[in-house]
Amino acid sequence: MVTRPSTPGAGGDPYLAGCATRRILDRIGDRWTVLIVGILGDGDARFSELRRRIDGISQKMLTQTLRGLERDGLVRRTVYPEVPVRVEYALTEAGWTLLEPLRALQIWSIEHLSDIAASQDAYDNAT
């Protein structure tokens, strides 16, 4: 008999179709989330800085991802009443706890890039 690992906390079970933990996994497993959280781990950043540092992200996708992260309590948006208005994004306490596991995924992807590329080539050539 195969058993699932127990999930700490409020009884969430991501292996159940209706569990809210799946939405959380969707959020933190998103490539834009990984990159945004990584940058904010270096300190607060403005929208334009995030967009400049994340090659290939559209304004729409950056906006949507930041709103989702803010809604989930991982990112804080601060508006400074200046002329022109200045908006900065920062990790919340919960966002900081996510930084280490996401950086581990980044490091893993870099370390295994060539192995995965070789496996993909071998698979593609065999099919």
TrEMBL record:
Any one GO molecular-function label of the UniProt entry: DNA binding
Superkingdom per UniProt: Bacteria
Span of domain HTH hxlR-type: 19-117
Keyword NADP: no
Gene3D superfamilies in alphabetical order: Winged helix-like DNA-binding domain superfamily/Winged helix DNA-binding domain (1.10.10.10)
Cross-referenced PANTHER family: TRANSCRIPTIONAL REGULATOR, MARR FAMILY (PTHR33204), TRANSCRIPTIONAL REGULATORY PROTEIN (PTHR33204:SF39)
UniProt protein name: Transcriptional regulator
SUPFAM superfamilies linked: Winged helix' DNA-binding domain
Record keywords, A-Z: DNA-binding, Transcription, Transcription regulation
One Pfam assignment: HxlR
Organism in which the protein naturally occurs: Micromonospora wenchangensis
